[in-house]
Amino acid sequence: MAWCRDVCVYGAGAIGGHVAGRLAKGGADVSVVARGAHLAATRQHGQTVVDEDGRFTVPVADSETPSALGRQDAVIVTVKAPALPSVAAGIGPLLGPDTPVALVMNGTPWCYFHGHGGPLDGQRLPKLDPRWGPLGRRPSGKRDRRRGLLGLHRHSTRRQRGRRPATRIVLGEPDGRITARVEGIAAALRAGGWGIEATDRLRDAVWTALVLNP
91 — phi, psi (to 5°)? Predict the structure, then answer.
């Protein structure tokens, strides 16, 4: 999926840094939106990943200002839910007409029922609503629902039956399709040596994670 070449990771904490590192290791042109200590560390040392497979460092472009990074083939948002409104306010310069945005976050997304197809299709979960569409707003202020991909980061810190801890991302369209853009982002992460599942049943993965996490 050669189209997914320029990828921005919005939020370079533990999850975002790992995602950025794997993308860069796999050959993508990676940029990160970060701030504070994370931004300073990336500028001084590059993006370092330490996991069960060892340690590696890769260079990435970085900025606190999305407009400095330009339009991207894809954007992966890895902030915590309370930061979503500020991401929505700043993400615009990263988006071309068809740039998909993947929310890779744990927990139940407020847009859980977007593309669900059942009787609650399109309903919001108000307690979780950051006043943001599944991803971004058009200049008119209307939610641009076509951009949205949903993702879940699963990281087990325990060894089970002699196996190493599992670190992976589950990614899918809200309506359950396995599309070229899902496969493109998945391929870019797999090229960096990371297990990623493209699924047509992402909501099952959300509930599995909720049940397994204490």
Answer: -75, -20
Please list the residues that pair with 89 across neighbouring strands: none
Going along 52-199, which residue ranges are E strands?
54-58, 61-63, 74-77, 101-104, 148-155, 167-172, 195-198
Please write the tens of the pLDDT for every residue from 72-105.
999 999 888 778 778 888 899 999 888 888 888 7
Nearest residue to 124 (alpha-carbon basis) of 116, 115, 112: 112
Q: How far apart are CA 13 and CA 108, in angstroms?
A: 20
> Out of 53-62, 132-141, 181-190, 194-203, which region has the weakest mean confidence (pLDDT)?
132-141
Give the C-alpha separation, 8 to 3, whole Å. Answer: 14
Fold (topology level) of 6-212: Rossmann fold (3.40.50)
